[in-house]
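Extended Data, panel c. Modelled sequence:
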Amino acid sequence: MARDSRNEIMQAALEALRTKGFAGASARTIASLAGVNPGLIFYYFASLDELLLAALSESSEERLERHRAAAEAVQTPRELVALLRHIYEEDSASGHIRVVSEMVAGSVARPELGRQVMALWEPWVALAEDSAERVLAGSPFAALASPRELALAGVTFYLGANLVTHMGQAPETVQSLLASAERLAGMLDLLSPRPDDGDARP
C-alpha cells in the first residue's frame, strides 16, 4: 500500500507538470490529483523538488528501457534518426514533452536543480553514444565528430525541440526537420559501408 501511494504521488506530480506547469505543480495540487493528504507527500519526499525529480527520473528510466532494444538494433544513420523522430513523436503525443520542458524551464534560475535535471539525461547520452559509435564504425564520416559529440548533439536537439514545441511552435515543424534529417541520413547510408558489406563481396 505504501509503495502504491508513493507511485500515485509521483504519477500525480507528472500530471501536474503536464497540466499546470512547474509553477503550478504545488504540493496541494499534486496531493489533490493523487487523492491524498498533502502531508503524505513529505512523508515520502524531503521536498517538492525531490518529488518532481523522482517522478521525472522514473518516467525517464521507463522510457529508456522501452527504447533501449530499438537503439541497440540500429545499424545505419537513417535508422538512428528515425528512432529519434519516433521518440519525439511519442513524447509529443503523451505530453512528456511538456514535463521535460517545465522541469528544464523551472530549473533555469536554480543551478542545483538544473544540475540534477541534466544528470537524468546522462543514461540517454550514453545510449546514443553507443549507437552512434556502432552506426559510424568504418564510415568515412566517423572522423568528423566523436560519438560522444554526436550523442550530445542529438540530446541537445531533443531538449531544444521540446522547448520550441512547448513555446507554441507546431510539432509538425520539428517533425519536418527530423524528416529532412532522416533523408539526409539516408544519403549518408549510401556513402557508408554496411556492417556486412565485407562479407558480401566475393
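The domain at 2-192 is CATH 1.10.357.10 (Tetracycline Repressor; domain 2). This feature is highlighted in the accompanying rendering.
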